[in-house]
Each structure stands twice: as C-alpha cells, then as structure tokens.
Design brief:
Chains A, B: It catalyses: pyruvate + acetyl-CoA + H2O = (3R)-citramalate + CoA + H(+). 2 copies of one chain form a homodimer. By secondary structure, chain A is α/β, with parallel strands linked by helices. Among the domains of chain A are: 256 residues, Aldolase class I (TIM Barrel, Alpha-Beta Barrel), CATH 3.20.20.70; 93 residues, no CATH class. Chain A has 18 helices and 16 strands. In chain A, helix 13 packs across helix 14. Chain A is elongated and about 85 Å long. Chains A and B meet through helix 4, helix 9, helix 10, strand 9 and strand 11 of A and helix 4, helix 9, helix 10, strand 9 and strand 11 of B.
C-alpha cells in the first residue's frame, strides 16, 4: 500500500440523513450508493441498521457495489453486558454489510456523565465489541467520538481508547471532531501526537463544519499522517454539515498529489455526481460550491473577463474540465459590453464587437434586470432575447390571451377538492388555435393548454417536461403585492437542461413567461 | 496597540457586488454600511469610485460612520504616467473616503504578460501611487494581488512589491489569494516568511473560497502574524465567495482569544446582521452557516437530543447566545417522540411525556411529512397542528369555498394586461361572509379577499403582511403535475416573524394553506 494512498469513506446516507429537510427514501439511498460506487469511493456507509425502517430496508435490499465496500454504522456494546447480548450491536453485525463502523466514547467526561460508566469499562466496551465484531464481519473500524475534545481533556485516556480498538483488530480508528469546534492547528498538532503513537495508515479523520473549517481540518489531519478521510457529498449533515468530500477530492488529488481509488477520468464525473445528489433530494444546487458550483469558474467583472480569456491559467486555480465543470461568463448589470460579447460567443453567435446592435442588447438586458429579470442562471432566456434582438428570430407561436380558473369546493361528503382550468388562444403559423385544458393547478393547466395548441405543429415537444419550478419574491417586505420571479428548468429526452425566467406581480403571468420561453427555446434548439 | 488586536476589513460592498445574482442599490449599500458600522468592523470598503454609477452615488451620499472608517478601492496608477495624470486613481482619491485600498500586481507573470510592463516599473507604480495617495487621504493600504502564486513563482519580486508599498507609507500591505487556490499550510508557511521580513502588524490577509479553505487560510495567516483580516458578510463574493467574516469573528474572539473592535455585546448582534444582509439582498439564509445558521445549533437525532439537554457543553462548541443565535430542536421523521416533546416544550406546551396524545401527534407529523409537508423551518404550522391536536384549539375561521380567476388579455392598444380576482366564502363565529377582491396575482387576490372577510372580526390583522413566499416542486422530474410546497414567512408590527407551509399539486391551494395558517397563527398568538 502506497504511503500516498488516501481512503475515502462517505457517510452521506447516514450523516446526510440528519440534515434538516432531508429524508431519503430507500430508492434515494440505493441510487446515491451506486453514484458513490461509480465515482470511486472506497467505503459507502449505508446507514444504521435498527435505527429506522428506511435503513433496514436499504440493507435488506443489499445493493451490489462493484468498487466500494458497504459499511454499517452503529455503537459499541452498552455497559454491563456482553457484545452478543447487545441487541443493537447484533443488529448491526447482522446487516449483511462486510464492513462495520462502530462509534464509542473517548472523552472521559462523556463516559462518566453521559454514559454513567467508568473509564475502565469504556475501554473494555471498545475492545470486546471490536474483537467480537471481527468474528462476524470482514472489516471493523472504530469512530472515536469527540476525540479532539477528549484528547484536550485527558490525552492518555483518549489514546488508550484508540489503542484498545486497534489492538482488538480494528482496521481503522477514526478521529472524530464530533461537535465541529476544533481548529486546523489543533487538529494537526493533536493528530501528529497520535500518529507518533499509532500508525498513521490506520487512522482516519471525521470533521464537521461548525466553524467553517471541516475541509481544512481534514487536510490538516492528512498532512499529520491519517490515511482515511470521512465526509459527505455536498457537505450534507446536521447543524453545519460534515466535511465536504466534493471539495476535498480535487484538492487531495490535483493539488496535494495524493492517490485515491478515483482515476483522473473518475474525477471528471465529480460535478455530475454532486448535482445528481442535489436533484435526488430536491435541494437547490449551491452555485458557489468549490470546484463544482455553477459559478466556481464564473467571471462577472468586465475588465476581469478580458484578462481571463487571454490566459485562463493566470486566474483559475485548476482547470474546470478536470472536475467536470466549465468556465462561465455571467451577464449582469455591471459588466456591460464585454460580458455580453463573451456570452454571445458562448452561445455560438458570431458578431462584430463594434456592432451597434450590441449596445441595444446591453441596454435591453439592463432594463429587464432593473425590473427584476436575471439572466444569471437563466441563459436560455438570454439566448432567446439575444437572437430575437440580433437575428430577428421569430417566435414560434404568439399568445393572444389566456384565462385560468382555479376553484376549491367541497364534495358532497364534505372533503375539499380543487380544480384548475385554462383556456388559451394561440396563433401558430398564422392560424388561431383555441384550447382548453384542466390541470391539478393553474400552471399545469396552462402548460397543458399550450401543448394542446402546439403539438400538432411541433410534435418534437412531446419529450419536453419541466423539472424544477422556483418562485421568489423580489423586494423585501412588499407582501403579496411584490414582484415575483419564476425560474423554470426544463429537459427533453436528450438529458439536456435549460432554464428560463419570468417576472410579474402575478405568479401565473410570471410562470407563463418562463413556460413560454422554455417551449420557444426547445423549438429553437430542436 | 496590543499584539493581540485584529483589524477587520469588510469588502461586502465591493467584492459582494460581484456575487452572481447580487445587485446592490445605493440604499442597500448605505444600509449595509450602517450595519457593519454598528457591529464594530474597523474598515468598510464602500466600492470602486468611477467603476459604476451605484458606487459613485454611494460615495457621494457620504454616509456617516461612527466607528468604522470608510474605504475606497481602486488600482495603482497604470504604466507610463504619473499618479496625478491617472484619471482612475484621481477618481478614487477624490471620493471623500479617508482610506484608500489600492490593488497592484505582485506576480511577475501578470506584470509582464497581462500588464505588458516591467518588474521595475511595477515597483515604481506601487511606490509612487502610495506616496501620492498619502498626500490626499488619511490612510493608504496596498492589496497585493495573486500574492501567494506570485511568491511561489518569484518570492523576491513579490516581497519587494510589499516592501515598496510599506516603505512608501502604506499602513497595511494585504496578501491576497486572488484565485483562491492556496491551501492553509502554504498560506501559513509563506506568510511566516513574509512576516520575518516585514512587521506582521502591518500585514493583512484576503482569501477566496475556491477550495473551501478561505476561513482556514485567514486563520493560518493570523497565526503567522498578520493583523488585518479582509472578508465579506456571509461569504459573499464572485465564484465561490470571499472569506466569511461571520464565520471568522466568533472563532477569532471566542476561541483564539484575539481582540477586535467588537465587544462581547457587539458579537451578540452577529446573527442579526448576517440575516439583515440576506434579507436586504433577498437571498435565502444559509440555514447551515457556521455560528449563525438557523441549524447551527439544531439537533435532529432522537437519542442525541436527550444527551444535549442534559449538558449542552458536551455537545455544543460555543454557546449559541454568544453570537445571537439559539438552540433549536428539529421535528422530523427520524426522531419520533423525544424530538416532538422537546419542540412542544420550546413552544411552551407543557405535557406529560407519557401522554398518549403525543403518539397521535407524532403519527400525524409523520403522515404529513410523508406527503410532503415539512415542519423544519415552518414551526408556526407545527404549533398550530400541535395545539389543534392537543389543546383542541379551534380555528378562528373556516373556509367554505374559493374561486380564483386569472386572465391575461390585450388592451385596445395591444399591450398585455393581467387581472386576478378571488371570490371566497368564509365562516367567522358562525356567520358566513362572502367576499370578492382583485389582486395583481391570484395569491394576492386570495389574501385580500380573506382579509376583507376577517378584518371586521379581527382588526389586529391590519399590521400583518407577508415577507417571503417560496415555492418548490417536490419529487424530481414530475413536471407541472408534481407536488408543490409553499412556505410563507409573515410579520406584523412587532418585528416578530413566523413561517407556515402548504402542500398540494395546485400552487394556489398550497399557497392558500400556508396563507391560512399564517393568519390563524397571528390570531392565535395575537
């Protein structure tokens, strides 16, 4: 085993489950496990058998992992009983996973006050749980809970807990900064001391982001000798989240020269995996995420953009393509001409920099942004605007009018029901179509009425559908009078996605604008 | 000056302006400048005079700061001219701000390729710009652009740039990791070398979060001797953002024992300032932000919660109150009884832990969460649910039916207009009210119709209004058929805020549920 080899342990499916607003279905867990496996992660922690029905169902489903080892999380035996008599421990050992990661106390304060046990018994709990587990599963690791606080309080006891686990045959002892309160220089110093006593290649690190230092703490521990890094995708986890494996991987591999199970080709899938997880959990992507965020390589300032185009190396710290990301030039109020020109180039529109129509387009963009539109994140709407302005792109259809009715009444039995109906007049190729459709909401009804009107002329629309619909109020404090901005993300059979925007004080009208741009873009790009 | 004193420099109003999706108005900048001043920040960078109209208007408005010094950002003079002949530099020096922060190149590659100048001229540009500026403003500082990359490429040149600025009278030379690619151990090592050559108390640090290490890099530089830290509120900034001052302040003051201009009382305003900035910019709060995030001290797991209640010190790394935050117990599927009990205690409902009605409430919560409701972040809806279930709280009004109509037509001149009308039947105290109202959108029309029906019986509603309205699709890929979750945040005259939730496949119905809970909560809490 190379001294340079880092093992990655992902606990998204357990720690990530603790994130506020996150609730995995079994299907979610299986899908994410396969993504982690495909990426090249060494260990996938599937959950805590016995803790909740979703985890039990996941382990029962026994997903086949081709590269990663599946791990089950749990606790050492409780005080005062043998491992084989501890129902919780037996549950974990019987989950079918080849690897078990058990957590135990290493802070004397917790042992005496929270567990109401003794230091000696705690060491036995660790040692005999690990020893027993080794007879049941292929690999055992020990999570040293609150290790850094424990070490500061009583270094000798904390170390003896680690040694007890390793001597009993644990493959790894993982130092956990459970409350996230340790700082990088502390983690590095303490880890060096531990690695002077036990072999670094049997140590792991598990950090939380309560001070914004989870990534730095993990890197500090690696520099001090640990060779396993635990974390989650996109930094999921309770409170401020766990160490973000997505931020750590490129730094470890591209900047610090460590080896992982990932090839350079695997690393190029990183952005995709990060986004798939967010989509699965219906969470907004963090556009500012290191390496994989949509804006990680986005340049907004006007003078800056021309410098970047001259020599990307001088402004970008890694190549976006190495992590599956891409450079992006943002359209905005500040940047004026040069940014709009860059964006036009990106969407494949060749136009002379001195063309006076550029000024008109820039003015138009600024006007629309002033009333609430944003083209950051809605590039398909920008492209339509630009092509209509510069290439006289004719709209594929023309809305004449619509009327949406939305009613909530009671059935005879007193249960509430709602129905929505949209009537629409649309002109397509000079011909007027009047359609009506019902839907389970007003936007859905509008969408259906529009498709009825367009599908005969444009059968290519059949594969198109909406994947995300976001609404925000613009301008704080104006209540239900405020301007509303709607962003719609659409996709078709090809997997391509595009986002469009609409703004109005009327949520239906704003939705209509975004919907109509989405359809027009599909018909343009066909 | 104490060796322990850290000076804080905030560039939210300049770097933050570069954030995708952020566009400050002059009013926004003035308000945020006052918040920074009130908090205790030493320097408030107001913008770049001459770069855009908003920044010019801000400096012209000359907001009065009581504690902080206002700073203007800009560049050193360009090659081949004297400082007094450089229009851009003169603009900055004439802005009225007593402090000027000028950026210059320190990476030989940039000087030669991007600027097309010579190393010798670059040193002159720095020296004479600073010398000249000292005759015009009270304090000058130098931002050493791309310093760490420059030092790695040519340490001698990079250092001479720093020395040129300090020898010419700059109060500070700030080491900038402009592309965010440096790692903490590199920043610490390089900074130590620099601080061996020039006094650390004249050095500053300016980091970006492209590897997720901006906070750690800033702390590393402080440990290596710098005494000024630059950053932004909430880590605003282009690409992955700047170093987050909100994460740095509590660590520097509460954990590392440094002094700043903030008192302990000032620090208790940190959470508030962080949220005010987000609200001003209409950005979603980061619920997971270190120290100030709504979930920074939130506990979700069931067994964990009882341990925390026994001894918070054993699980929380600092006291939430020290930064103006509070502990939070989350309701969720996982945690069952003990979490619901904790939440009930928090909303002031005393009930026996063994009371069988708790089971019914827990089951109800799980059922509703299963179909898409979330009470994380919608605690007012939870409280109503709990009080109706456990205390037989009677709803203050009963919806019989509503009908919303939303039309988009053309005026005679061909301009589109939309109108929305809501008709509603509501029973209040046994009496049936039928109202109609128009609105500039369907939710606004419903809101108005409801108030018409309720204001006579409940005049206290007159101060209530909606401040945020968020809509998300649940369940990826289901297009406009999907379930929609609406969260509404409301406030009244007292400044108190509460959030309610509604779920339906119909956006109007989901909005109605959240609206009706919002009103019911106000009437309950009165």
């Amino acid at each position: 085993m190379s001294a340079n080899r880092i093992y990655l342990y992902d606990s998204t499916l357990r720690d990530g489950q603790q994130t506020q607003g996150v609730d995995f279905t079994v299907g979610d867990k299986i899908a994410i496990a396969h993504e982690l496996d495909g990426l090249g992660i060494d260990y996938v922690e599937g959950g805590w058998p016995g803790a909740n029905p979703t985890d039990d169902a996941f382990f029962a489903a026994a997903p086949t992992l081709l590269r990663a080892r599946l791990s089950a999380f749990g606790m050492t035996r409780r005080p005062g009983r043998r491992p084989e008599d501890d129902a919780g421990l037996m549950r974990i050992l019987g989950s079918g996973a080849p690897v078990v990661c058990m957590v135990g106390k290493t802070w004397d304060f917790h042992v005496e006050v929270a567990l109401r046990s003794t230091l000696a018994e705690n060491l036995e709990m660790i040692a005999d749980s690990v020893t027993f587990a080794r007879t049941r599963v292929a690999e055992v690791m020990f999570d040293a809970e609150h290790f850094f606080d424990g070490y500061k309080a009583n270094p000798d006891f904390a170390l003896r807990c680690i040694e007890a686990a390793l001597n009993a045959g644990a493959r790894w002892a993982v130092l956990c900064d459970t409350n996230g309160g340790s700082l990088p220089h502390e983690v590095e110093a303490i880890t060096r001391e531990v690695a002077a006593r036990v072999p670094g290649e049997r140590l792991g690190i598990h950090c939380h982001d309560d001070t914004g230092n989870a990534v730095a703490n993990s890197l500090a521990a690696v520099r001090a000798g640990v060779r396993q890094v635990q974390g989650t995708l996109n930094g999921l986890g309770e409170r401020c989240g766990n160490a973000n494996l997505v931020s750590l991987l490129p730094t470890l591999m591209l900047k610090m020269g460590y080896e992982t199970a990932l090839s350079r080709e695997d690393l190029r899938h990183l952005t995709h995996v990060s986004r798939v997880v967010d989509e699965r959990l219906n969470r907004a992507h963090n556009r500012h995420a290191p390496y994989v965020g949509e804006n990680a390589f986005a340049h907004k300032g006007g003078l800056h953009v021309s410098a970047v185009e001259k020599d990307a190396r001088s402004y970008e710290h890694v190549q976006p393509e190495d992590v599956g990301n891409a450079r992006k030039i943002l359209v905005s109020d500040q940047a004026g001409r040069s940014n709009v020109l860059s964006l036009l180039k990106e969407v494949g529109m060749t136009i002379e920099a001195s063309d006076p129509r550029i000024d008109r387009l820039v003015r138009l963009v600024k006007e629309r942004e002033f009333i609430g539109y944003t083209y950051d994140g809605a590039e398909a709407s920008f492209e339509l605007l630009a092509r209509r302005e510069l290439e006289n792109l004719t709209p594929p259809f023309e809305l004449v009018s619509y009327r949406v009715m939305d009613e909530r009444r009671m059935t005879e039995t007193g249960a509430p029901f709602t129905l929505a109906e949209a009537t629409m007049k649309v002109r397509v190729d000079g011909e007027l179509h009047m359609t009506v459709a019902e839907g389970n909401g007003p936007v859905n009804a509008l969408d259906r009425a529009l498709r009825k009107a367009l599908l005969v002329a444009y059968p290519v629309l059949v594969d198109m559908h909406l994947v995300d619909y976001k609404v925000r109020i613009l301008g704080a404090g104006a209540g239900t009078d405020a301007l509303i901005r709607v962003m719609i993300e659409s996709t078709d059979g090809s997997g391509r996605r595009w986002t469009t925007v609409g703004v109005s004080s009327n949520v239906i009208e704003a939705s209509w604008q975004a919907l109509s741009d989405a359809v027009a873009y599909k018909l343009y790009a066909a």
